[in-house]
Design goal:
Layout (H helix, E strand, L loop, with lengths): L9 E5 L8 H16 L3 E4 L5 H12 L4 E6 H4 L10 E5 L2 H11 L2 E4 L4 H15 L7 E4 L6 H12 L5 H4 L2 E4 L2 H9 L10
Parallel strand pairs: 1-2, 1-5, 2-3, 3-4, 5-6, 6-7
């Protein structure tokens, strides 16, 4: 069963609800969100009101874009769902959160985050690999944040657990402009060569 492709121009951004140790993570997320809106794209995100999540939403809104957040009821209190920006969908579980975010989006950008961000990245990469969806995935490797993880994916190819074509599902970019260009490119969705 394939996930339907939405006709809108919404990009899901996976990122952390925390700011991280470097102030640059939040500043970059805000700038990324602003550029997303400037290009006429809207945001789908995990509805966190602080950290990198809050900053990317603020950037989109400052740029005149639309923000859609998806939050499971169990995290509504913990992540201060009342502080979330934009239209908010409260769902029953993390599985429903991810499924709705995937359906609402035409592509996925990955900014700094933790285990939840890695989970979302690997799930959309797997869904693309298995042809459950055909939507582009771009890791924004700003200042080398994701270099170790990208090297691990290359290691999986070297060790024979991933083909070079499958490795191409997860593309990477150093800047917001480059990432958004990759997300907008025709045929950028799945199994792009590395």
């Amino acid at each position: 069963m394939q996930t339907p492709v939405t006709k809108s121009k919404r990009i899901a951004v996976f990122c952390g609800a925390r700011p991280g140790v470097s102030e640059d993570h939040v500043a970059f997320a805000r700038a990324f969100g602003h550029e997303l809106a400037r290009r006429g794209r809207d945001l789908v995100y995990g509805a966190g009101g602080v950290g990198v999540m809050g900053a990317v939403a603020d950037g989109v809104l400052a740029g005149g874009g639309t923000v859609t957040g998806v939050l499971p009821r169990s995290l509504y209190e913990r992540e201060r769902g009342d502080r979330a920006r934009g239209e908010i969908f409260v769902v029953r579980s993390m599985h429903q959160r991810k499924a709705l975010m995937y359906r609402l989006s035409t592509g996925f950008a990955v900014l700094p985050g933790g285990i939840g961000t890695m989970d979302e990245l690997m799930e959309v990469a797997t869904w693309n690999q298995l042809s459950l969806m055909e939507k582009p995935v771009v890791v924004v490797n700003h200042r080398g944040f994701y270099a170790p993880m990208l090297a691990m994916l290359d290691h999986l190819v070297t060790e024979g657990f991933l083909t070079p074509q499958e490795r191409g599902v997860v593309r990477s970019a150093e800047t917001a402009d480059e990432a958004l260009d990759l997300l907008a490119a025709p045929g950028a969705a799945v199994l792009a060569p590395v």
